[in-house]
Amino acid sequence: MGGIWQAPDNNGRSAFLPVPLFDSLFGHQPDGFVGISLAPGATMQEVAQRLRAAAPTIDPDLQIRTPTETGKDVGREVSGFVGPFWALQRGMLLVAFVAVLSTLLLVGVQRRRELGLMAAVGMTPRELGRMALTEAGAIGVLGSVLGTLAGMGMLFGFFNAAPIMFGIGEPVHLDLRAPLVDGILALVVVLAGASLPAWRTVRLQVVEALQYE
Q1: Distances (CA, A) of 108 to 98, 116, 118
Q2: DSSP 191-208
Q3: Are 204 and 116 in contact (CB under 8 A)?
Q4: What is the pLDDT of residues 159-211, one digit of tens each?
């Protein structure tokens, strides 16, 4: 027995045997992959084309991949695992849109007298609408910042737990562009949800608002 240890592949456990012992137990098995080293002056594409041309005569199931193609295949495989998380992210953006829209519509009704008083002392309709958008934008920015800090804390915890759970170091890294891009996207969604309440604020009737109880 060469060794047994926990690994993230093969359901968490791998066993490595000497080749003669493995063949005696399971018979000769075809190689899973074979690496090719380029000769001086040869190019990757030329070697790949020659191997693809000869592959049908060697084994119909033989596949030839360059390092770039292998990376793309692995990327597509990983994308299949993270697909549910992308769907969850877009679903949460939809929830944020509905939550901002419904909450600000309710707040507009509850603050109707307050908004009417602000208009009576000199705020123009555009300023009232701008105030509603500014409040929504502040909430969006604050939510993005708090979400980023919470996500970094969870990622830090994952980095420390990964060697214990999987037996290897963390296979991911922190992408600082993601909070910026996703934060801007969340802010756009929040402002879109606040557009209808802001429009209703602009059309506020001051006299009726002051009489509102």
Answers
A1: 15, 11, 13
A2: HHHHHHHHHHHHT--HHH
A3: yes
A4: 777 667 665 665 667 778 888 888 888 888 888 888 888 888 888 777 776 76
